[in-house]
Design brief:
With 272 residues, the chain is of the alpha+beta class. The protein has two domains: 91 residues, Arc Repressor Mutant, subunit A (Orthogonal Bundle), CATH 1.10.10; 161 residues, no CATH class. It is built from eleven helices and ten strands. Strands 3, 4, 5, 6, 7, 8, 9 and 10 form an eight-stranded mixed β-sheet that branches. A two-stranded antiparallel ribbon has the order 1-2. Helix 1 runs antiparallel to helix 4 and helix 8 runs parallel beside helix 11. The longest helix is centred in the C-terminal third of the chain and has 18 residues.
Length: 272
């Protein structure tokens, strides 16, 4: 049985009571998850990912932290047959069949693991003529996850790598706003301009320095799964960022990176 189907069964057995992801995890069969290098919290994160990624199946109570869920009902009644049909034909786990081999979606239990995947494969995400700079390692403190210089566009890209389990307005957007607060400081700008080996020629480096001085860049959030909330809120997000940054030229984009793996650990990537 899949994790999602098991979550639905938990609600069915518990009178569809409100539960948060940790309470749901405690009721699930531990054998569903297998080994996880991030331990119990990594497994809990997988439960949260299924809840957030299939949000149309659930009602959500935002008055709790962490938020609580229950199955979405029709006139107060659970139509479990209808829900199971939705799971099978609409919300089932993504998979790829290639040359007779099955590749299952790789569920990241930590942001660090996903970030490593983005850095290793950044040319697939941002193009062959792009350079990825791991800002956190270069500066020793967090400003953003990374910078990308897109040579085709001659454009500086601010990169945030995120998991869909992270709350859009409670986690992702505050991190982006935190970047704007940091880059307004002269000390931060000086570090970005002169303490980083960009791997570009002098004319390109001059362009990057000017971009930092003038705050001329775009923001790309690379995420492991696009959620309905993000799809529905992109205009509101851009309006907020434009207002906060006081700069109409700054845009925020979301890029989905899915990783599929077979039993030989061979991988297929889907980018959209």
């Amino acid at each position: 049985m899949s994790i999602l189907s098991s979550i639905i069964e938990i609600f069915e057995k518990n009178n569809n009571d409100w539960l948060d992801y940790s309470e749901i995890y405690a009721k699930l069969d531990p054998n569903l998850f297998g080994p996880n290098k991030n331990g119990e919290q990594g497994k809990k994160n997988m439960v949260s990912r299924h809840l957030v990624g299939n949000i149309d199946l659930f009602d959500v109570d935002e008055n709790f932290r962490p938020r609580k869920y229950k199955l979405r009902t029709q006139s107060g009644n659970i139509n479990i047959q209808f829900i199971n049909t939705q799971v099978k034909y609409t919300y089932g786990d993504s998979r790829i069949i290639h040359n007779g081999n099955e590749y299952k979606i790789l569920e990241f239990s930590s942001e660090d693991d996903f970030e490593d995947e983005v850095m290793k494969n950044h040319k697939m995400v941002f193009g062959d003529n792009s350079i990825y700079i791991d800002i956190k390692k270069k500066l020793g403190n967090r400003i953003c996850d990374g910078f990308v210089f897109d040579k085709n566009l001659n454009r500086l890209i601010i990169v945030e790598n995120e998991l869909c389990i992270h709350d859009l307005w409670g986690h992702i957007i505050p991190q982006i706003i935190g970047f704007f607060n940091a880059i307004r400081k002269d000390e931060t700008k000086m570090k970005l301009k002169y303490n980083i080996e960009w791997g570009v020629d002098d004319s390109e480096k001059l362009m990057l320095i000017e971009s930092i001085d003038k705050s001329e860049f775009d923001i790309v959030v690379v995420i492991d799964k696009m959620t309905p909330e993000i799809l529905n809120q992109q205009r509101s997000i851009n309006n907020l960022i434009t207002e906060f940054a006081k700069n109409n030229s700054i845009k925020i984009y979301f890029k989905e990176l899915k990783v599929f793996v077979n039993n030989l650990n061979e991988r297929i990537y889907q980018i959209s």
